[in-house]
Amino acid sequence: MLMRIRLVVTLCAALVAGAAAAHHSLSGQFDTSKHFEIDGVVTRVNWTNPHVYVFVDVKDANGAVQTYRIETLPVAMMRKAGLTQQKLLGDGRAVNITAHPARNGDPLLGYMLVLKMADGQEVQFNAVPGAEKTE
Amino acid sequence: MNIMRCAACALLVISLQAGAAEGNVPRMPNGKPDFNGTWENGGGIDFVRPETRPDGSLCISGCAPPPPPGTLAPGRLPPDRPKYKPEFQAQVKDLTARQQRTDPVLRCQPPGVPRIGPPDKIIQTAREAVFLYEDVSGPFFRIVPLTPGVKRIDDSQSYLGDAQGRWDGDVLVVETGNFNDLSWLTDDGSFHTTDLKVTERLTRTPEGIFYEATADDPAVLAEPWVLRPRVLTVAEAEMSEPAPCADQDLAHMQDDSYHSNPR
């Protein structure tokens, strides 16, 4: 019976499917046409809702450290993908992050698109736009 | 056209529901259907389908090209929204347009009922059922007495209201009222009054639960809102403590862009 119900619910979804604009506040916070890359060490992960934040220490050419704040997905989506706070925190080795820049002009704020971990694991959190990089 | 399609869907669902309680469903010692368990209800993120690519990388979102204009991505469902009386439609439209500033959930407030969705876990005895929720706004519980006369000391209006359960044959019916008016029914400015009444019907099937809900607020709604039914299946993992809800986004929001909060 459950299988029959599942089938009908799916069928109903298909029947009533129509034009539905899917908006998200991502574009209200970040320039989704651009992206930048950083190499640094994850020093903290705020395992919070509605969105997780990853803090990354990046050394500039003079050796000075700047801490980037990278917003990413909600915890439920992380868990569904098998990611944990500890996994994102890593082991202190450098990671590479591709992110959208913030619209408010804060150069140290971004939205995670791709995380390349030190162990070689690569995770895509959102599609990387085809637009040119900001830097 | 969509109305006719929805009506056809409703008839199909109702006809199936009529037979949903048939069969060998788990039962309690008192003979009532057994709803105990941790249940997978999609959590509103059915559209998230992580995949491991041939090169070993993991993709969580944006894995496939965007769907053609006017179509939905796999797993995305069309909006399921209540209908308001004409005199309140402008208010809904205004709240929706200012959602970033007006949606209680974006400030980590409790989602209310029915926005919170089906329970993630049910603990059931002969006297009561306890619904547990792992929600983006935090952990929540609802106590559903199955016998009359159980009252809480503080009967103030609340986000999740006062629930009372009863049996309609093998269907567990949960009727809830005494809500405050601080939550929305959905993420589209769908405010409600303290007159809101929500009726949930849970039908145990051999493999899961068929969940239906109707929200009625005659003061503002044009008609009772019958939500899209949900199918709950046995969860593969135990529910987790929700991460704390601590908004850090709104401070750098640059406009009133719409933020969906599906459940």
What are the SSEs and their pairings?
The complex is a heterodimer of chains A (135) and B (263).
Chain A: H1 2-16, H2 26-29, E1 36-46, E2 53-59, E3 65-71, H3 75-80, H4 85-89, E4 95-101, E5 109-116, E6 122-124
Parallel strand pairs in A: 3-5
Antiparallel strand pairs in A: 1-2, 1-4, 2-3, 4-5, 5-6
Chain B: H1 2-17, E1 37-40, E2 51-52, E3 58-59, H2 86-97, H3 99-102, E4 121-124, E5 128-135, E6 138-145, E7 162-168, E8 171-177, E9 197-204, E10 208-216, E11 225-226, E12 230-234
Antiparallel strand pairs in B: 1-4, 1-12, 2-3, 4-5, 5-6, 7-8, 8-9, 9-10, 10-11, 10-12
Can you describe what's shown?
The complex is a heterodimer of chains A (135) and B (263). By secondary structure, chain A is an alpha+beta fold. Chain A has one domain (2-124): OB fold (Dihydrolipoamide Acetyltransferase, E2P) (Beta Barrel), CATH 2.40.50.140. Chain A has 4 helices and 6 strands. In chain A, a hairpin with a 7-residue loop joins strand 4 (95-101) and strand 5. The longest helix of chain A has 15 residues, at 2-16. Chain A is globular. The N and C termini of chain A lie far apart (57 Å). With 263 residues, chain B is of the alpha+beta class. Chain B has a domain at 82-237: Lipocalin (Beta Barrel). In chain B, 12% of the residues lie in helices and 25% in strands. Chain B has 3 helices and 12 strands. In chain B, strands 1, 4, 5, 6, 7, 8, 9, 10, 11 and 12 form a 10-stranded antiparallel β-sheet that branches. The radius of gyration of chain B is 19 Å and the shape is globular. The two termini of chain B are 26 Å apart. Chains A and B meet through helix 1, helix 2, helix 3 and strand 6 of A and helix 1, strand 3 and strand 12 of B.
